[in-house]
Amino acid sequence: MNITIITVGKLKEKYLKQGINEYLKRLGAYAKVNIIEVPDEKAPEQLSEVEMEQVKDKEGERILAKINQDAHVIALAINGKMRTSEELADTLDKLATYGKSKIVFVIGGSLGLSDNVMKRANETLSFSKMTFPHQLMRLVLVEQVYRVFRIIRNEPYHK
């Protein structure tokens, strides 16, 4: 299975990089995982609704340019579907069973994802109704993907 994580912005925090790299190393036994960073759109702190949409649209164009036509896209969104780790494992296992081996997870920038990215997504996923920094979500997502493979393989870890 090929898993791509497309995310907006550069990861700066060393501790997050270390955690992500640890899980990527562990994931090497299960899947090819690639993280693609697209530049975030520079914007002032205070934005109108129209300006927010423009920023999301520009970031969305960069995201969509990195998604293959045959990929199954799962967008992370606060209003997405909440799943347990076991349910996510079941989803990815079924996708693999039915020939969908290219999975793309998308993490938006600080303003979220554009409407066009949400339309391209085959499904949405929410980790919580709470708001998390998008950089931290990379670590949480990579850990959950690792957990998913351990669950699928019925290997100890997820309890």
Short description:
The protein is an alpha/beta fold and 159 residues long.
Q: What labels would you give this structure?
A:
159 residues, alpha/beta, Alpha/beta knot, five-stranded parallel beta sheet, globular, methyltransferase activity
Question: Any overview of this molecule?
Answer:
With 159 residues, the protein is α/β, with parallel strands linked by helices. The protein has one domain (2-152): Alpha/beta knot, CATH 3.40.1280.10. It has 5 helices and 5 strands; from the N terminus they run E-H-E-H-E-H-E-H-E-H. The protein has helices at 14-27, 49-64, 85-97, 115-120, 134-152, and strands at residues 2-8, 32-38, 72-82, 102-107, 123-126. Strands 2-1-4-3-5 form a 5-stranded parallel sheet. Helix 1 links the parallel strand 1 and strand 2. Helix 1 (14-27) runs parallel beside helix 5. The longest helix is centred in the C-terminal third of the chain and has 19 residues, at 134-152. The protein is globular. The two termini are 24 Å apart. The mean pLDDT is 94.
| Fourth-tier CATH superfamily name | SPOUT methyltransferase, trefoil knot domain
The CATH topology corresponds to: Alpha/beta knot
- Name the strands of the widest sheet in spatial order: 2-1-4-3-5
Helix content: 40-55%
* Oligomer status: single chain
Number of helices: 5
Indicate how many domains the architecture comprises.
1
The low-confidence parts are none
| Overall form | globular
Q: How would you classify the helix and strand content by structural class?
A: alpha/beta
